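SEQUENCE-TO-STRUCTURE ENTRY
===========================
What this section holds: a protein sequence and its matching fold, both as plain text.
Question of interest: how does this chain fold, as expressed in backbone structure tokens?
***
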Amino acid sequence: MQVFEQVESQVRSYCRNWPTVFTTAKGSRIDDEQGRSYLDFFAGAGSLNYGHNHPAIKEALLAYLAEDNVVHTLDTYSSAKRRFLETFRDLVLAPRNLDYKVQFPGPAGNNAVEAALKLARKYTGRETVVSFTNGFHGMTLGALAVTGNSMKRGGAGVPLNNAATMPYDNYLDGRTPDFLWLRSILEDPGSGLDLPAAVIVETVQGEGGINVASDEWLRGLEAVCREHDMLFIVDDIQMGCGRTGPFFSFERAGITPDIVTLSKSLSGMGLPFALTLMKPHLDVWEPGEHNGTFRGFAPAFVTATAALETFWRTDSFTADVDASATWLDGELRDIADSHPELAIATRGRGLARGLVFERPEHAGQVCKEAFANGLLMETSGAEDEVVKFLPPLTTTMAEFEEGAGIVREAVATVAKTAAEEASA
């Protein structure tokens, strides 16, 4: 462990909560160099929806590399890119009647967000982008400007401009449908808000605390965008690729965003890969106007294609996710109900779930106890008050039961400690 402390930057974070050296991984399990096996209910912050080293995806990658096929291609044509585009069109876009052009903006989610923001401003000729309380869209400057977390924003070192923050669904305790605040401000000539280029939103805020927007709120938000000629951007980087059940998290709300950002689990096995999807009339880029060296990473084309062919030919994968989500929701509600003294609430959609603690320190203590007992989890929310569940979507029922048992025990331990401290 010494070399990490001596050489690596202090910016590292996850390793501080999981102080071990990981080596191998398969499915929902990851092992360290001491030979200990952990259940992984974090899944690379949602980058491993199909688990670690899924055999069908790994086999496709190994076969591609063994034949000395191209790896780095900038944005030149390749057989790997062609096959990905054909598969994405036929298995994802066409069955959902979605007509999008596909842009490869760079390797990571923030690349997809930066391209979306830049395109919205170029197309509309306007500057402001509306985002929402507790939203998270990345750590580069444009993405940070539309991110809510003050700690992350504070690292920018410069003013974060050309953005306006509005209340997310239920931020105002449901007193008024929150999208109406945006409508009223847009219609008020004294509000001081110039007509925005776009709105960017997550249907479920992962880093923000597993906050779930209702279908009604999303439809209302889309309607406001249409009324005022603003582009509607959905950031599906963490909640896409089946995390909430359907491939896109916005499908069940019956909305059609103008621009969609995808990354994380898109490659199928944790390789860097991102897309910015846009309605065809929005594709106003000049050749080379937005580019990047690593936007043609052929191994990710290969693994993404294999993931789509393995999981998205039918609706059965969505049905499996829905069934697992229903079971997990019931378990978490039971855990919360078992400890009224901790004032725990539950949130979530699909296999993005959260236990929300009235005292934020309890969430961190639960994650620490879980790690000690062989389960990887993390916190989220403005005050790290939420224990976040992002298990691989391929987790077996036996593994879910094992993980839920560890969480149940961890919560009981924290409750016991809290009671002892209160009575001391």
Observations:
- The chain has a mean pLDDT of 95.
